From TrEMBL:
GO terms for cellular component: condensed nuclear chromosome; DNA recombinase auxiliary factor complex. InterPro entries: Hop2_WH_dom, WH-like_DNA-bd_sf. Residues 15-76 form the Homologous-pairing protein 2 winged helix domain. One of its GO terms (biological process) is meiotic joint molecule formation. The keyword Oxidoreductase does not apply. The keyword Nucleus applies. This is Unnamed protein product. Its main location: nucleus. GO terms for molecular function: double-stranded DNA binding; recombinase activator activity. Belongs to the HOP2 family. Keywords: DNA recombination, Meiosis, Nucleus. Pfam families: WHD_TBPIP. It is found in: Nucleus.
Length: 123
């Protein structure tokens, strides 16, 4: 007789919703219900998964697209406008820093070139 499988810990619906939401955000790609169950290694059973996915869709935290009997769940698209504005402001400040560094390096280059010329004349 084969050994019995040890039971995996089952999560409550509130905890399961957090796990599902974080998983979908981390992966940032669409998954079917069965794929999510398999990828979470059976930590959440099918009935809890169905209830949690429906609750998350109703609350607007994730999106669902139906293709006949097949439902595909995915997180909302990320808003990149805020990050773009932050990035442009950072680039602006970096450009100022780089310009001051560049002018300093150009002065050093001119000084070293004049030293090189004087040393070559001295030979």
């Amino acid at each position: 007789m084969p050994p019995k499988k040890s039971k995996t810990e089952q999560y409550k619906p509130e905890e399961a919703e957090k796990i599902i939401l974080s998983y979908l955000k981390d992966q940032y790609r669409p998954y079917a219900q069965a794929d999510i169950i398999l990828n979470l290694h059976g930590k959440i059973n099918k009935t809890t998964m169905t209830k949690c996915l429906n609750d998350l869709v109703e609350s607007g935290k994730i999106l669902c697209k139906s293709f006949g009997k097949f439902n595909c769940y995915f997180c909302k698209p990320m808003d990149v406008t805020d990050n773009g504005q932050k990035l442009s402001s950072l680039q602006g400040s970096n450009n100022v820093d780089l310009d001051t560094d560049l002018s300093g390096y150009e002065e050093d280059l001119k000084r070293l070139q004049t030293q090189n010329i004087t040393l070559q004349k001295g030979k």
